[in-house]
């Protein structure tokens, strides 16, 4: 994950539009908004998080949490967020005069306490701040979402904590149905014919091993991650020789890799790689938000890659319609209207 750029805007900022697992345990009453019963969930660090009522004021320094909250229709309840999320058209369009951001990557405990949030959401790498916030009776939910089950669990738990269970269930139902549909179609693909996929992360020669979220994305899309034998839970640096030895059938470039398909196709050192010879080098299309991360848009990345990996099996899939429908359902606008394009 890239470093989070900035932390808080301690004024109310609002989204431009409406609707912006197995590891989870949660209990609450049927009508949480009117209930006096405690709401209890288990977060990504296996901590019990209890609220007396659904959170109305939420602070987070984690862009993916912002995307999830917007997809749950909770954008009006976010008191502040990190600077990158604010620049993202999928999330925020700050009110006039509210565009200031703190210049630090760190979470400022005093600022958080002064804002009096009902809930603070952080990424697990910031877990050391939890005791400091809890000392001041600040409720903290820690996110750990490194696979699809954990992502769905996180959406479910945040839906419970914010009183948006119905919307979170709608999200999980969408994911389940789409994954089932993809899985059923992939049954027609001979296991021996699965394409070998190489994904470039922060650079051309940085790739995800088997413990990375992106490995799951490749497998769910019907491909084989050529770096799947690497056990690291971080991006792995490799050599050009290693890539040539793997000889992938498809090369996928992330938006943040800094590499374009033509760069790879023109790279003389890679001219004998199958993906280059057959011109199967693709850039994940979304500049709005990364489709290869554990975020609400991950399903779009899976669907897009299934078409690239198995075009004959998914030849009837209208990816533009699928993407526009998703954005409309969960963000209240379409990918096309936001200026997104698909190749």
Automatic annotation (TrEMBL):
PROSITE patterns: FE_B12_PBP, PROKAR_LIPOPROTEIN. Residues 1-26 form the signal peptide. The keyword Flavoprotein does not apply. Keywords: Signal. Pfam families: Peripla_BP_2. InterPro entries: ABC_Transporter_SBP, ABC_transptr_periplasmic_BD. GO terms for biological process: cellular response to iron ion. Residues 57-318 form the Fe/B12 periplasmic-binding domain. Belongs to the bacterial solute-binding protein 8 family. This is Periplasmic binding protein. It comes from Clostridium carboxidivorans P7.
């Amino acid at each position: 994950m890239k470093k989070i750029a900035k932390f808080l805007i301690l004024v109310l900022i609002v989204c431009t539009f409406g609707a912006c697992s197995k590891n989870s345990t949660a209990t609450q009453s049927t009508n949480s908004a009117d209930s006096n019963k405690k709401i209890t969930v288990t977060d990504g660090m296996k901590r019990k998080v209890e609220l007396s009522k659904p959170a109305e004021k939420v602070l987070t320094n984690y862009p993916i949490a912002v995307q999830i909250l917007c997809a749950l229709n909770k954008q009006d309840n976010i008191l502040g967020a990190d600077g990158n999320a604010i620049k993202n058209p999928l999330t925020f369009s700050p009110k006039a005069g509210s565009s200031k951001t703190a210049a630090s990557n760190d979470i400022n405990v005093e600022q958080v306490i002064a804002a009096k949030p009902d809930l603070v959401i952080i990424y697990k790498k910031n877990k050391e701040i939890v005791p400091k916030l809890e000392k001041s009776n600040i409720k903290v939910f820690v996110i750990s979402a490194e696979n699809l089950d954990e992502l769905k669990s996180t959406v479910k738990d945040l839906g419970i904590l914010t009183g948006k269970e119905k919307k979170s269930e709608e999200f999980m139902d969408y994911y389940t149905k789409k994954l089932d549909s993809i899985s059923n179609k992939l049954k027609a693909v001979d296991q021996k014919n699965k394409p070998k996929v190489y994904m470039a992360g922060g650079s051309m020669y940085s790739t995800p091993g088997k413990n990375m979220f992106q490995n799951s994305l490749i497998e769910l899309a019907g491909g084989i991650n050529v770096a799947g034998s690497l056990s690291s839970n971080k991006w792995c640096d490799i050599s050009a020789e290693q890539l040539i030895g793997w000889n992938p059938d498809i090369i996928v470039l992330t938006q943040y890799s800094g590499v374009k398909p033509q760069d790879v196709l023109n790279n003389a050192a890679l001219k004998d790689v199958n993906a280059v010879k057959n011109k199967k080098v693709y850039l994940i299309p979304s500049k709005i938000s990364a489709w290869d991360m554990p975020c609400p848009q991950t399903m779009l990345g899976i669907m897009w890659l299934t078409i690239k990996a198995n075009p004959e099996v998914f030849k009837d899939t209208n990816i533009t319609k699928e993407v526009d429908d998703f954005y409309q359902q969960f963000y209240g606008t379409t990918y096309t209207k936001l200026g997104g394009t698909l190749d």
